[in-house]
Specification:
heterodimer; A: about 120 residues; mainly alpha; Cytochrome Bc1 Complex, Chain D, domain 2; B: about 200 residues; Ferritin; about 65% helix; about 0% strand; globular
């Protein structure tokens, strides 16, 4: 089939699959969402119910030294990037079974905006 | 806005809350604890059927951590000397709700064979919440408003993760209490309520 031959060529133009929501991630809107959705458990600079978030983008899961993580997150080899964060916010249990967050964000655009905000606040 | 211009609802609801608080203290500890736990779990038929998992205990324990923080936030507010009546009474009434949430969660976690997460020292909450930066009554109300909205959203966002539907309903009831607090605080601060529907959760 012709399309078989064309597919690899077409894919080569796209470095990796990009979630359309992610491409439009709006850090400004992400800050408001973070403020209303995440703030009961997280802060950028203080460990609370969950670990502090500044620098989380690009970091290995479970690597804030003073925070007591679940054994599952502590021993995970997941690194937080666009894809892993999007999946984590969709359903954390599917990314790291045994995690303790369990909080989900149902709308893809909301997730993408929050990821853009975390990325920005991590200096990336 | 000057602190004295902040009006807090003091009608029958607020008075009722405060009476409830007295009853809570009169009943002192154990008796109230089991009564609240029974109320919380009424309708959780599935509990006997073993639908509850260690994952559900984890969710309840994170919720308990959030309630510990809320209780301490109101304590810091009450002790700050920045709150005047009737705001102070309302803050104490809301703190009492969070204590009831805490006791109900502890009882449920124990009943499920889990180990309830302990409260941290108050100074740790003060540091994490930056309590040192609170300068007036409006600052305290703003912090409480932020935490209550966050708590309502936190409960709504963990609902899909529960294995047990009875516990998911409990989370929804807790979210409703936090929303009630947020609404009262928002009115007290003279702010508009959201014009659009469905601003919580999702």
């Amino acid at each position: 089939m012709n399309s078989r031959r064309w597919l690899p060529a077409a894919l080569a133009l796209v470095p990796a699959f990009v979630d359309p929501a992610l491409a439009n991630g709006n850090a400004e809107r992400g800050r408001d969402l973070y403020e209303s959705r995440c703030i009961s458990c997280h802060s950028l600079d203080a460990n609370r119910i969950g670990p502090k978030h500044r620098g989380v983008y690009g970091r290995k899961a479970g690597s804030v030294p003073e925070f007591t993580y679940s054994p599952a997150v502590k021993s995970s080899s997941v690194v937080w990037n666009d894809q892993t964060l999007m999946r984590w916010l969709t359903n954390p249990q599917e990314v790291i079974p045994g995690q303790r967050m369990n909080f989900r964000v149902s709308q893809p655009q909301d997730r993408a905006d929050i990821v853009a905000y975390l990325k920005k606040e991590s200096g990336q | 806005m000057t602190p004295s211009s902040i009006a807090v609802p003091t009608g029958p609801i607020a008075k009722g809350l405060i009476t409830e608080r007295r009853a809570f203290f009169r009943a002192a500890g154990a008796a109230t604890l089991s009564a609240t736990a029974v109320a919380l779990m009424a309708g959780c038929e599935s509990m006997a059927q073993g639908n509850m998992t260690a994952a559900d205990v984890n969710i309840l324990n994170v919720a308990l951590g959030l309630e510990h923080e809320a209780i301490n936030a109101y304590q810091l507010g009450a002790e700050s000397g920045l709150l005047q009546q009737p705001v102070l009474n309302t803050a104490v009434a809301f703190q009492t709700h969070h204590k009831e949430h805490r006791d109900a969660l502890i009882a449920t976690i124990r009943k499920m064979g889990g180990m309830p997460v302990a409260e941290k020292p108050k100074a740790e909450y003060a540091r994490a919440l930056n309590a040192g930066s609170l300068r007036n009554q409006a600052d305290v109300l703003k912090l409480a408003q932020r935490l209550e909205r966050g708590a309502a959203n936190a409960y709504l966002g963990v609902i899909p993760s529960f294995g047990d539907k009875g516990l998911a309903q409990v989370a929804a009831r807790l979210a409703a209490d936090e929303t009630m607090h947020w609404t009262a605080l928002t009115s007290a601060m003279g702010e508009m309520l959201p014009q659009k529907a469905l601003t919580f959760g999702a």
